[in-house]
Amino acid sequence: xxxxxxxxxxxxxxxxxSSSSVDWLTRDLVEMRIRDxxxxxxxxxxxxxxxxxxxxxxxxxxxxxxRGRNGQSRQTVSYISEHVVGTGSFGMVxxxxxxxxxEIVAIKxxxxxxxxxxxxxxxxxxxxxxxxxALKHSFYTRADNEEVYLNLVLxxxxxxxxxxxxxxxxxxxxxxxxxxxxxxxxxxxALAYIHNCxxxxxxxxxxxxLLVNPHTHQLKICDFxxxxxxxxxxxxxxxICSRYYRAxxxxxxxxxxxPAIDIWSTGCVMAELLLGQPLFPGESGVDQLVxxxxxxxxxxxxxxxxxxxxxxxxxxxxxxxxxxxxxHPLFDELRDPNTRLPNGRxxxxxxxxxxxxxxxxxxxxxxxLVPEHARKQNFFMALDA
Length: 385
Description:
By secondary structure, the protein is α+β, with helices and mostly antiparallel strands. It folds into two domains: 5-23 and 158-384, Transferase(Phosphotransferase), domain 1 (Orthogonal Bundle); 41-116 and 118-155, Phosphorylase Kinase, domain 1, CATH 3.30.200.20. Helices cover 32% and strands 17% of the residues. The chain is built from 15 helices and twelve strands. It has helices at residues 27-34, 41-45, 119-126, 161-169, 177-198, 248-251, 260-275, 289-299, 302-311, 322-326, 332-335, 355-358, 363-369, 372-377, 379-384; strands spanning 50-52, 61-66, 75-88, 91-98, 104-111, 135-142, 148-155, 159-160, 200-201, 210-212, 219-221, 228-229. The strands form three sheets. A seven-stranded mixed sheet has the order 1-6-7-5-4-3-2, with helices on one face. Strands 8-10-11 form a three-stranded antiparallel sheet. A two-stranded antiparallel ribbon has the order 9-12. α5 (177-198) packs antiparallel against α7 (260-275). The longest helix is centred in the middle third of the chain and has 22 residues, at 177-198. Mean pLDDT is 82; it is low at 1-47. Belongs to the protein kinase superfamily. CMGC Ser/Thr protein kinase family. GSK-3 subfamily.
């Protein structure tokens, strides 16, 4: 299962690998990367006010203030809690409505350790991508027991890839291949953005952390609570990433790893969508990879099998990068201007690349990545032409 050409993470000259992308970091993110810094008194003074009362029961009203835009004064915003949509070791996520605008949002509520900066908040404040859930603003609340919670106000996306996949499983159906392609491509595009532009590794790619609009099928990665900038020579915890989606190096306890662990997880998600069930339901399942690929060869187009083989390289250095995955022939159907969703609607935006995403990428790679019809529609690429 060795890979050549575009499938190898070291083969495409000019495509920046994650190790070199650390140089692109802003000073704030570098400081965050080096240590989970203890806050100073000056930093605490600059934080937003803490709101007393941290209830999430339906009908509970949370009033906070947000910074005004373009020099405007701070504005008061009220959120009416509707219902809890998810819980975990991190805290909870609840759906709420903005009283002033009627907008539905998702609020992620996380218990704070006062000694440390919250890495997720800093990361979310820097990210801006169509395949990454957007942070609107944040505020703090204090519970009756004096514990303080960070609340991240995020755009609301009604569905997850996990629930979408289960809806097919319940009826003994497999997800249509066009949706598997769409979701896998958008995961890879988001990972290319965070890996190459920030040197950031998500470390918890799984169907539950992939939001999807059921009408447009636009996908957004969420939950950056485990995300971290990985620096060569710096140790990291190996017990990271959910069990079914852990790369071999994590299973074997490696403390120095790369964003290639996200690529392995993406392969697990893609395979799960194709199979209708998790590919590796136990840690020993990785040993059966060769036999599993043989089964795939009988059921899937050769392009799908080839991409899975590139995702599932045991050696992290041989796995394809996220950007290389985006230009894989499996996704050529998505670059066809005549391709439509099964219901006849157009595909979601897939090629609205910003200059930051394409910085340093050779023109021949860009030409394979962005189809001609999309280049004409992209303003900054049209100017280059």
